[in-house]
């Protein structure tokens, strides 16, 4: 079963609404944050949960890169990066087994993304 199907089932069971875009990616809100579960058509066991565009780089690229590097160095699982267009994203990317009990870890992953966002903002403000 594709990871997006597992997440759709979890979201439905937990009462979350979601949308499916033209690529088959799931878009939903969790505690006020916009999140995407992006499928990889070549790898059914790869789970990518993204928090897109948490910040837009202006004339502060070095400061943004330092803050996001701090998040990457200090936090488990979460990965932050800056896109070519200047948007800062966070994601969790992991492999799961063929019959995962997604209830055991999905909510924790979502909470880690929220914590990563807070950590980025705190680090950015402290620089």
Describe this entry's structure for a reader.
The protein is of the alpha+beta class and 127 residues long. 37% of the residues lie in helices and 31% in strands. The chain contains three helices and six strands; from the N terminus they run αββββαββα. The chain has helices at residues 3-14, 61-74, 106-126; strands at residues 18-20, 26-30, 33-38, 46-56, 78-82, 87-95. It has a six-stranded antiparallel sheet. Helix 2 crosses helix 3. The longest helix is centred in the C-terminal third of the chain and has 21 residues, at 106-126. The protein is elongated.
- Order of SSEs: HEEEEHEEH
Structure class = alpha+beta
Q: Enumerate how many helices there are, as a single number.
A: 3
Kindly state the number of beta strands: 6
Strands in their spatial order, largest beta sheet? 1-2-3-4-6-5
Mean pLDDT: 95
How far from one another are the termini?
Answer: 44 Å
* Quaternary assembly: single chain
Uncertain runs:
none
Global geometry: elongated
Amount of helix: 25-40%
What fraction of residues sit in β-strands?
Answer: 25-35%
Largest sheet report = 6 strands, antiparallel
What is the C-alpha radius of gyration, as a whole number of Å?
15 Å
Short structural summary:
With 127 residues, the protein is of the alpha+beta class. The chain is built from three helices and six strands.
Strand and helix layout:
Layout: H1 3-14, E1 18-20, E2 26-30, E3 33-38, E4 46-56, H2 61-74, E5 78-82, E6 87-95, H3 106-126
Antiparallel strand pairs: 1-2, 2-3, 3-4, 4-6, 5-6
Helix pairs in contact: 2-3
